[in-house]
Amino acid sequence: MRPRASACSREKPVVGEMFETWSYESEQPFSVEALRDMVRRELPASIYRCKGIVFSDEFPEKRFALQAVGRRVEIMELDEWGERIPQSRVVAIGSTFDAQELSRKFDACLTHS
């Protein structure tokens, strides 16, 4: 299976709304430790919540759940991928953040094997 390029999207807030959302997908695996460190140390303070399912290089047969609120980060092992295609899907909720920079930070945690 060929890795697919990562993708992200961002929804602009409607006038009067206080939040923006950002989503990220990749079929390339993450280094879980690099991801945990990046989210804990580099995620902008304007990101209030970040969560998703993560494809890990260290344990490629397992799915992991990413949960982050502020600087508190949990990455928990879930079940096996089974028949599902391994891929990461992450969503962030916040206000006034640079979506391209956020994508670069997540891209930097991917392993390129």
Brief summary of the model shown:
It contains 2 helices and 6 strands.
Give the topology.
Layout: E1 7-11, E2 20-26, H1 32-42, E3 47-55, E4 62-69, E5 72-80, E6 88-94, H2 99-107
Explain what this protein looks like in three dimensions.
The chain is an alpha+beta fold. The protein has a single domain, classed as 2-Layer Sandwich (Hypothetical Protein Yjia, Chain: A,domain 2). It contains two helices and six strands; from the N terminus they run E-E-H-E-E-E-E-H. The chain has a six-stranded antiparallel sheet with strand order 1-2-6-3-4-5, covered by helices on one side. A hairpin with a 2-residue loop joins strand 4 (62-69) and strand 5 (72-80). Mean pLDDT is 88; it is low at 1-6.
CATH class: Alpha Beta
Q: What is the CATH homology-level superfamily?
A: CobW-like, C-terminal domain
CATH topology: Hypothetical Protein Yjia, Chain: A,domain 2
Question: Helical content, roughly?
Answer: 10-25%
**Assembly of the depicted chains:** single chain
Rg over CA atoms: 14 Å
SSE-based structural type: alpha+beta
What's the order of the H and E elements? EEHEEEEH
Major sheet: order of its strands? 1-2-6-3-4-5
Low-confidence stretches: 1-6
Task: List its traits.
six-stranded antiparallel β-sheet, 18% helix, Hypothetical Protein Yjia, Chain: A,domain 2, alpha+beta, disordered N terminus, 6 strands
